[in-house]
């Protein structure tokens, strides 16, 4: 069917304005990728590793061989911090030092002798099997990581403390602003296209209407249409009901969240990083939280446990000095409790970890990735019950469960769940 379009002056003017609007929006859209690419190219240029080494390969080598004694910053660990070391020495000197530091010291090199004496004549491990490319990669990673460390260290605690399942809380990143602007532009583009289509269809279908109905430009006619919609009783009634339902839902959600501390990440008296200790160094949670396999509480580690390592490692660190101060003043470190259950609820760590075989991450989230510890799960009664309904009981090689398994198998074909052995009884968790 051919629809007659009238090419009058008003139609052409309206169509011309619409084309101009679309052209502006398209230009904005095209500019967004340029901004992103410009940022990426700048970041890539700034992150070029010194010496042309492979920083990705060097990262693995550094963490496997060097991280126990050296930091990529200026901070002293067992040995000196490595920030800027590739600018203080040429590659020939660095490669000799890495492969056999004692030979460099024995040669009488002034700097080597100075470092050796400054660090109590502690002998550095030699790595004669590392190739030139391996050593270049290590120092390329050190340069790259040392550049990124100052920018990442400051917001790390704040971002962890302000998140509720996702980090954030500071100013939005440039990429986030760009993506948000792109989404707004896309929405405007879609709206503009829809308005153009509506305008064309209204002119095509309304060819026989009176000239008085066509008076005014496009925006005038749009305003008149919106007024008609707002005056419609059915639309107004539907809008009011939708508003009431949204307010009711927000009220109910707020009532259910009372007392729920999901996302809680308080500032601690000592900046302890689980990401460093449990993640990078892979220290077992049981080493510090000694009660997790034996009792109700997992226990907060005492200063003595900290000093098992920090009596030697990073003694000069300001945060470690806080531990020394606590010991000298005979005062415990006042850690802020993160995971809290109401007094009416009973929870036993040993029952879940030692008997149930659960990992810490089941309840606490990926602790090994947290710079600042936070409550990742809601820890509500519904959350616990849902876990009991889904978790299967490990009955393998455990005669205690033999008769229970037989009774359960006679009534159900599904696996034995915690809920089937009393996991939903009120008295199990409530006094």
pLDDT < 50 runs, ≥5 residues: 1-21, 25-50, 156-172, 208-213
Q: What would you call the shape?
A: extended
Class from helix and strand fractions: mainly alpha
Main beta sheet: none
Count of alpha and pi helical runs: 19
Distance N to C terminus: 78 Å
What is the number of beta strands? 0
Work out the strand percent. Answer: under 5%
Radius of gyration: 33 Å
Write down the oligomeric state: single chain
Helix amount, in percent?
A: 55-70%
Summed over residues and divided by their number, the pLDDT gives a mean of: 78
H/E series, N to C?
A: HHHHHHHHHHHHHHHHHHH
Q: Can you offer a commentary on this structure?
A:
The protein is an all-alpha fold and 431 residues long. 56% of the residues lie in helices and 0% in strands. It has helices at residues 9-46, 55-65, 85-88, 91-99, 101-106, 110-118, 132-162, 174-205, 218-231, 233-256, 274-280, 285-288, 303-310, 318-328, 349-355, 361-364, 381-390, 402-411, 426-429. The longest helix has 38 residues, at 9-46. It starts with 8 loop residues before the first helix and ends with a helix.
Topology:
Blueprint (H helix, E strand, L loop, with lengths): L8 H38 L8 H11 L19 H4 L2 H9 L1 H6 L3 H9 L13 H31 L11 H32 L12 H14 L1 H24 L17 H7 L4 H4 L14 H8 L7 H11 L20 H7 L5 H4 L16 H10 L11 H10 L14 H4 L2
Helix pairs in contact: 1-8, 2-7, 13-14
Quick take:
With 431 residues, this protein is mainly alpha-helical.
What are the key terms here?
about 425 residues; mainly alpha; disordered N terminus
């Amino acid at each position: 069917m051919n629809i007659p379009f009238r090419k009058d002056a008003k139609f052409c003017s309206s169509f011309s304005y619409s084309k101009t609007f679309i052209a502006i929006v398209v230009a904005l859209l095209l500019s967004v990728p340029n901004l992103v690419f410009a940022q990426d190219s700048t970041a890539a240029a700034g992150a070029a590793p010194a010496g042309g080494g492979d920083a990705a390969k060097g990262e693995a080598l550094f963490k496997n061989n060097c991280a126990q004694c050296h930091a990529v910053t200026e901070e002293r660990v067992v040995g000196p911090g490595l920030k800027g070391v590739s600018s203080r020495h040429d590659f020939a000197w660095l490669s000799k030092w890495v492969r056999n530091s004692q030979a460099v010291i024995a040669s009488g090199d002034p700097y080597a002798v100075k470092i050796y004496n400054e660090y109590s004549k502690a002998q550095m491990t030699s790595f004669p099997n590392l190739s030139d490319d391996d050593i270049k990669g290590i120092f390329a990673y050190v340069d790259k990581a040392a550049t990124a460390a100052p920018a990442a260290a400051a917001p790390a605690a704040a971002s962890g403390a302000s998140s509720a399942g996702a980090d954030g809380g500071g100013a939005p990143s440039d990429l986030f602003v760009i993506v948000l602007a792109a989404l707004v532009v896309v929405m405007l583009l879609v709206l503009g296209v829809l308005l153009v289509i509506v305008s064309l269809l209204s002119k095509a279908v309304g060819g026989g209407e009176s000239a008085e109905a066509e008076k005014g430009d496009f925006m005038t006619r749009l305003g008149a249409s919106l007024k008609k919609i707002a005056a419609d009783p059915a639309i107004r009634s539907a809008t009011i009901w939708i508003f009431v339902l949204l307010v009711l839902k927000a009220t109910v959600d707020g009532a259910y969240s009372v007392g729920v501390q999901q996302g809680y990440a308080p500032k601690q008296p000592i900046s302890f990083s689980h990401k460093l200790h449990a993640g990078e160094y892979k220290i077992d949670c049981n080493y510090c939280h000694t009660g997790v396999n034996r009792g109700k509480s997992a226990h907060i580690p005492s200063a003595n446990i900290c000093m098992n390592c920090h009596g030697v490692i990073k003694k000069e660190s300001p945060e470690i000095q806080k531990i020394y101060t606590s010991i000298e003043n005979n005062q415990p470190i006042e850690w802020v409790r993160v995971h809290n259950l109401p007094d009416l609820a009973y929870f036993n760590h040993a029952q879940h970890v030692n008997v149930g075989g659960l990992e810490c991450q089941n309840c606490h989230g990926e602790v090994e990735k947290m710079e600042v510890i936070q409550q990742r799960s809601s820890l509500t009664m519904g959350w616990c019950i849902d876990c009991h309904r889904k978790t299967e009981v490990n009955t393998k090689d455990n005669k205690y469960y033999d008769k229970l398994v037989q009774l359960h198998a006679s009534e159900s074909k599904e696996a034995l769940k915690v809920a089937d052995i009393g996991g939903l009884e009120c008295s199990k968790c409530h006094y």
